[in-house]
Amino acid sequence: MPPREISPGIFILQDKNKDKAQLATRSSDPVPVYGERIQDGYRLWDPYRSKLAALILKGKGQTALSLTRDSKILYLGAATGTTVSHLADMVSEGLVYAVEFSARSMRDLVRLCERRKNIIPILADAAKPEEYAPLL
After folding, report:
1. Residue 27: CB partners within 8 Å, gap ≥ 6?
2. E strands of 8-123, at which residues?
3. What whole-number distance in Å separates Cα of residue 2 and Cα of residue 69?
4. pLDDT of residue 31
């Protein structure tokens, strides 16, 4: 069964090894970001590693997102970039501003940003927007 696009950049596809449908995004970078499986060029998005993926799979998030390929996203609490990487796939012509407080997580996020040119890492406390707002 061919992938079905349910929202810009978000696909539902049949997992070859399971009977259930899987959420996926498509990236121009074929290298896995966090060990996710790649199936026919689509990155499977694990709802157990991303609350946003779980929300979309439940059918609650895909219409609430209202994203287009050129959207700009501010993502607070980016950690190492698991969800951020999928958002970057979705907004392939836009930008994801990824705010993270932990220097340790930021190191991994910066490595991701070296491969994904539409992610801007910001080391800051998400609770203090006055500190990072000028960067947006």
Report:
1. 43, 85, 88, 89
2. 10-14, 21-26, 38-39, 42-44, 72-76, 95-100, 119-123
3. 21
4. 87
Strand partners, 96: 73, 119
Tokens of 6: 């349910």
pLDDT tens-digit readout, 55-114: 888 876 555 678 899 999 999 999 999 999 999 999 999 999 999 999 999 999 999 999
Write the DSSP symbol of residue 124.
S
- Classify residue 135 by its DSSP letter: G
Q: Which residues of 25-58 are buried (b: 16+ CB within 10 A; e: fewer)?
A: bbbeeeeebbebeebeebbbbbeeebebbbebbe
Are the C-beta atoms of residues 81 and 112 closer than 8 Å to each other? yes
pLDDT at 17: 66
Residues 6+ apart with CB under 8 A from 126: 76, 77, 99, 101
CA nearest to 66, candidates 7, 130, 1, 132: 7
Pairing of the two strands 4-7 and 95-100: unpaired
